[in-house]
Amino acid sequence: MIDEVDRKILRSLHYHPRASFRLIGEVAGVSEQTAARRYQALRREGVMRVVGLINPEVHGLARWVTRIRCRPDRVAPLADALTRRPDIAYVGLASGGSEIICMILSPVDAPRDDILLRQLPKAASVLDVSIDLLIHAFGTVGFSEWSGYGGRLTPDQVARLTADRPPAATGPFQPPTVEDTPLLDALAEDGRTTHTRLAELTGWSKARVARRLDALESSGSLTYDVDLLPEPLGHHLNAILWLRVAPAHLQRVGDELADHDEVAFAGAMSGNHNIMAVVNCRDAEDFYRYLTTRVAAVPGVDAYSVSIRVRRLKQAASLIAHGRLIPPGPA
């Protein structure tokens, strides 16, 4: 059973994914050992993962928001093919059972067919496709920085976590090298892997590990994401809002949405609906409240539509199987 201590641990990781268990324990009001044990239990149960990710922009990749409508009898193989592709960061099935929503990493100038259709089952199963470029992420570049699960921290606690966190990236990017592969593979598996363990895996000294991490992090090449499943935290309705906003209001509306507790991600995109917002709510009534109070209070939204997600297959750096977050690879 997830309690307030667990939520404070998750909230601490939200502010500083690699914070020490000593600091996390002090913030959550428990011992260092209890904080470590609670964290490991959450990770083992597949509720959350801390992952280290290379920023796609390092390799000149953009994010493409893609909606695929296909024959209902072909949804499963098509979604599975998309989920297994390393260039696809997110896959979800929308209500109705025939729409797949995904986010693809591909160069801005890539031909449309190269972005989507390669390595998929026969294209005859695809009835309609829309592909729009994600042109800006509001608030955060992560895809799962949702914070609506409770565990609120005081301003002093937030200040302690953020003061201990490495400074914001200043660039320019430091592209990873072949030598970095063991380091990055370990962080993709567990973004909290210790310097000692990273030194063992790479054959480097701990000082060299620290220097390389500092170079990758300070340039913005390496980022950390706290990947969460909302259902164990009591939020069982997940939706994507597609909003239409006049360009003059785009930044303000996007920033306001990104600040909502219910929103896991908000981004500006090309297309008829030029803002997407990923929303987690407790149930249908909670979602209705969110739409009619918080979204309704945001001036500048001209139109919207909703995709209710009935199943998520992949998010950030994790596959989702049997209600658990797992590393990419065979389920």
Automatic annotation (TrEMBL):
Gene3D superfamilies: 3.30.70.920, Winged helix-like DNA-binding domain superfamily/Winged helix DNA-binding domain (1.10.10.10)
SUPFAM superfamilies xrefs: Dimeric alpha+beta barrel, Winged helix' DNA-binding domain
Keywords for the protein's UniProt record, in alphabetical order: DNA-binding, Transcription, Transcription regulation
Gene Ontology terms for molecular function: sequence-specific DNA binding
Matching InterPro entries: AsnC-type_HTH_dom (IPR000485), Dimeric_a/b-barrel (IPR011008), Tscrpt_reg_AsnC-like (IPR019888), Tscrpt_reg_AsnC/Lrp_C (IPR019887), WH-like_DNA-bd_sf (IPR036388), WH_DNA-bd_sf (IPR036390)
SMART domains given in the database record: HTH_ASNC
One GO CC term on file: cytosol
Pfam name, any one: HTH_AsnC-type
Record domain HTH asnC-type: where: 2-62
Keyword Ion transport recorded: no
Record-level GO BP terms: response to amino acid
PANTHER family: LEUCINE-RESPONSIVE REGULATORY PROTEIN, TRANSCRIPTIONAL REGULATOR AZLB
Protein name, entry field: AsnC family transcriptional regulator
Biological source species: Streptomyces sviceus (strain ATCC 29083 / DSM 924 / JCM 4929 / NBRC 13980 / NCIMB 11184 / NRRL 5439 / UC 5370)
Origin organism lineage: Bacteria, Bacillati, Actinomycetota, Actinomycetes, Kitasatosporales
